[in-house]
Design brief:
Layout (H helix, E strand, L loop, with lengths): L1 E6 L5 E2 L10 H5 L7 E6 L2 E6 L1 H9 L4 E6 L5 H12 L7 H11 L5 H12 L5 H8 L6 H9 L4 H5 L7 H10 L3 H17 L4 H7 L2 H8 L3 H13 L1 H16 L6 E5 L8 E5 L4 H12 L5 H8 L1
Parallel strand pairs: 2-4, 3-5
Antiparallel strand pairs: 1-5, 3-4, 6-7
Length: 304
Amino acid sequence: MDFKKLKISDCKMVDKKWDFFFSEEEVKTSLLSVNPIIVEPEGNKYVLLYGFKIVEAFQERDKETIPAYILNKLPLVEKIKKIAEYHRQKRSLYPIEIAKIIDKIEDKVKKEKLATEIADALGINRGYQIIDEYKSLNEVPEYIARFLTKKDASLKLIRQFRNRDESVLKKILDKCEPTLNEFMNISKNLYEIAQREDKNIFEIVEELELDRILSKQGKQAVGKIYSLLEKRRYPIKNEYETKLRNELKKIDSPSFIKINPDWSLETRNLKFEAKISEERELDQLIDFFKGVDKQPLIKILSEI
């Protein structure tokens, strides 16, 4: 590929079908380290094949020229291979990027080439089944895909979000900025509750007033939503947790001692924590443990 600086005004023949890749952090921070774009000559202008976000960043900063590689006219397969291999010099392709590339070219390329030459260029295993698995990711809503790529999500994980184009999930991502683990748990709980209760998720959202929580609490809504869904999903666990808390209040213990059961209810362990700052508290601690076997509520707790 030949290298030269081009006028940005000459790169406006943009064909969005080539816009496969998510923006890079370097575009947001500094234009000095940005890799050259890739273009293909057409008349006295150029068709942009790679670097859409880079061009946008240059335009926003009123730059007149941009570094570019000129890719001579090539068959489609060779063109895709060149672009993918160039991008992979910076990082591996995200699963959703691979899916977008396959979606755009599958009707123009024999499946055998997709499963071999293109697969090699994209950095994935060869095989028809692999190609079909990646194609299925095009059923994942764009806002979900963008969130997951930032978290470097696997093919298996992304696949869980096929056809889940639900407004509540988008609101959670927009307003709460959850971690991937938080988002996965919220989504999983929401759908499993709906399935168990034979409702759609919008009914669950309305009953728990999740829209109101999102609008009022913003980023702080994640913990509240997660707690509400956990209680709704595990009603028996919630019942026992309430009983545990009530029993703990009845235990006659010094204020500097904390008694923590295993709140997952997976074990019967009780954890005692004591913060002692003076000698008399040590005496109180000893007296407390001497009397543990006489405290029937400790036994009740272990039975719960």
